[in-house]
Amino acid sequence: MAYDKPIPRQGQHNKPFWEGAKQGKLVLPHCLDCNKVHWYPRLICPFCHSDRLDWIEVSGEGTLYTFAVQHRLAAGNWAKELPFVTAFIDLKEGDRMQTVLLGVDPNKPEDIKIGSKVKVEFEQANDDTFIPFWRVVES
Amino acid sequence: MKMPDLSYRAALVGACESDLIGYPGGEERTIRCTSLQLHIEAIKNVSAYTGIPISDIDGVFSAGWSSELAEHLGIHPSYIDTTSVGGCSFQIHVRHALAAIASGMIDTALISHGEAGWSYRGMGGRGGGGRGEVSPAEEATAAYGIAGAPAQYAHSMVRHNHVYGTTPEDFAHISVVTRQWAMKNPRALMYSKETNPFGGEITIEDVLNARLIAWPMTLYHCCLVTDHGGAVILARPEIARTLKSKPVWVVGAGESMGHSNMVEMADFTATSAHRSAKMAYEMAGLSPNDIEMAMIYDSFTITAGITAEMLGLAPRGRGYTLWKEGHAAPGGRLPINTNGGGLSFNHSGMYGMQLLVEAYRQMSGTAEDGVNGDPGKQTEASNCIVNGTGGTLSTTGTLILERD
Questions:
Q1: Which residues of B touch A101 (CB under 8 A)?
Q2: For a Cys staple, B38 with which of A1, B18, B162, B220, CB 3.0–4.6 Å?
Q3: What superfamily would CATH give domain B146-404?
Q4: Of B134, B162, B217, the CB nearest to A11
């Protein structure tokens, strides 16, 4: 069945991210001067203000920073998935990403543990868009 | 009475354009500049030209762009002005910046303009709007189903529970106590069962058993959605002294931001109110121990609880105890949200005006003005800290007001 949930519109600055995603790789902006990875993509490093930026593949590993269970409010066809778990992920390489959290039971939020190890995976939404989602692999 | 003389109190130290101007990409628009790109190019250029590092900028002025620019640059300005009133906006920004600098609130104000009037002509360029372009932050978060403020704020409560061992029940006390104040305010939506079927007294069990909006927040952890109109006038002392209404003095003021999008919130248990409050306390020469009442934005119980901590009214992790132990309640030592709050009085979407109206009434001794109160709402407090929160625990402004 075709992917029917919101698909991000792609901007001109994030091409390496979406190209990496097609190959199942998490590719993020990286500063050649301070060596930090950041997300979301900037036109200038938000840590040291260098514009010497490139893109690197990162591990796709992280930990669960916090989460919530959506019971009433959802964007687009996520409404059909209610309740579902949304979360923020601390990347192993630093900075943070948002996700719908996989591998958890939204009806048992007390079983979801902050600090759990998570891994990224990609779901194909259309020919050009493979959306990263994070799954709990070890709580 | 002439206006204050601000001559020589600040100077323009550099002015640069973006790298590309005019018709980049020509008639065919073989490339398209984004408005954001035009902003960033000009900012980098003026930073290089003046030798002022971007990290030293503590005020950001623009026509509708300021929070996105500050976040994009990774800075946390202490003065944010995004006044957008057409072509004269940038002259007005300079004047605001001058006042801010002369008053000592900021040192360096960035005034920035980026407008893809050509590249996105007819596509809704982002001079102040922005339909034709993709925001990098929006692109990074659009896939994940989150819609609306409660969906976002719930993540903060979960984190607070984890870090400090608090529970949703702890925060439920904020709902219950705030309702007690609403029951003294006939204009409050939840004043009584007569004003609303859900009005009147509520219990902890009512809060915990209400339907889930975004776990762990139930309906009663969330503010109302109502209509409201309000206005205040601020005047210089010479005028204020001649009016028939009572003056309420602004003795402290501050503003700050942590982020624009929640994915950029460094610590989900802390807002920038600790910075805006520090400014206000320093200006006023007061400390949290001197504060006698508070009007705190309560879009959600978590908002009020965290903010009380940020204002220094309670230790980190224990803001909710002000309500749980009754200090914030009618008759308590530190009345909070005496109008009944966004939780039970009125919340129109942007609640800061309601905070100001009630703070004025309390500080002018008119909290039972015959329209808005019955006996018992007026406090004896001689000062009031007022804190507004905007966005997703994003932007804060703090005032300390004092009775004449």
A1: none
A2: B18
A3: Thiolase/Chalcone synthase (3.40.47.10)
A4: B134
